[in-house]
């Protein structure tokens, strides 16, 4: 009977001891994270590039035809997606630039040429001569969830080979109905010059293209999901442009007041107020 009374206490004591043994070691967790990010940085460095850009702009924009010009210098980032020297970056990094210099992690400098660009999605392709370049793979961004660890690599403010780490704060961020773009939100530090650089997961694959930050805020950066990058890159490589379906109509939101005037149902549908000449609908 005494053993029967002691048995529950023995079980409880064993459970406590087992639980203490199973608790994670904070120091081991720190060492794991350090090793992981060091390994990732060394793995992706060779395929991440710095893009120096030069552009001639008029000193007096309102008199562009007669104005003297000045040379503006900018900087961005990119990552190699094809061993033949094809680099993905942001459209706004290379838009209207007259000269591109691509700087690699080993110190090489090569002249870059914009192969194709899409301003709507802010994705562009830059080509350099050569072959056998290391590449980064595009991951499936649909599998990314808030809380996933990520690493941003690029050249913020021209500081090459800069690495920052953080998590995915949110997915599917939209900023306007007209834009129809979803972004990944991250708290990994992103600064001017990071644009076009990769957002890397713990497998060393690209989950997003770092694009912009929220003005006046810290720890709020946004990246184009890798699945969108893959889709746009495929069209830019094969056709040089991105084809988008269109109807050829201009519409307005059906407000409650407008719905009453048109005897419609508020919140249901839109109002077509113009048909574009020679558009698919007009035909």
UniProtKB/TrEMBL annotation:
Q: Which domain of life is it from?
A: Bacteria
Q: Which GO terms describe its molecular function?
A: serine-type endopeptidase activity
One GO BP annotation here?
proteolysis
Instruction: Tell me the leader sequence span.
Output: none
* Record-linked InterPro entries: PDZ_sf, Peptidase_S1_PA, Peptidase_S1_PA_chymotrypsin, Peptidase_S1C
In this record, what's one Pfam family? Trypsin_2
Name of the protein in question:
Trypsin-like peptidase domain-containing protein
């Amino acid at each position: 009977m005494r053993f029967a009374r002691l048995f529950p206490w023995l079980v409880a004591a064993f459970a406590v001891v087992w639980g203490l043994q199973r608790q994670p070691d904070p120091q081991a967790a720190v060492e794991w994270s350090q090793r992981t990010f060091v390994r990732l940085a060394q793995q992706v460095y060779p395929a991440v590039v710095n893009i120096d850009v030069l552009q001639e702009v008029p000193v007096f924009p309102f008199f562009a035809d007669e104005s003297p010009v000045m040379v503006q210098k900018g900087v961005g980032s990119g990552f190699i997606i094809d061993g033949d020297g094809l680099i993905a970056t942001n459209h706004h990094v290379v838009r209207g630039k007259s000269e591109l210099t691509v700087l690699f992690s080993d110190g090489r400098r090569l002249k870059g040429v914009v192969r194709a660009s899409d301003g709507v999605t802010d994705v562009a392709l830059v080509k350099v001569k050569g072959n056998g370049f290391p590449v980064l793979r595009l991951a499936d961004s649909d599998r990314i969830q808030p809380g996933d660890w990520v690493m941003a690599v690029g050249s913020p403010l021209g500081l090459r080979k800069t690495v920052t780490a953080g998590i995915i704060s949110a997915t599917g961020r939209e900023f306007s109905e007209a834009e129809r773009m979803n972004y990944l939100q991250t708290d990994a530090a992103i600064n001017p010059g990071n644009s076009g650089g990769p957002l890397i997961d713990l497998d060393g694959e690209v989950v997003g293209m770092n694009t912009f930050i929220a003005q006046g805020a810290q720890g709020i950066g946004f990246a184009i999901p890798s699945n969108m990058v893959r889709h746009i890159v495929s069209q830019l490589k094969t056709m040089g442009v991105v084809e988008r379906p269109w109807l050829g109509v201009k519409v307005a939101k059906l407000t409650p007041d407008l719905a009453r005037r048109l005897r419609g149902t508020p919140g249901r549908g839109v109002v077509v107020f113009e048909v574009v000449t020679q558009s698919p609908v007009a035909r």
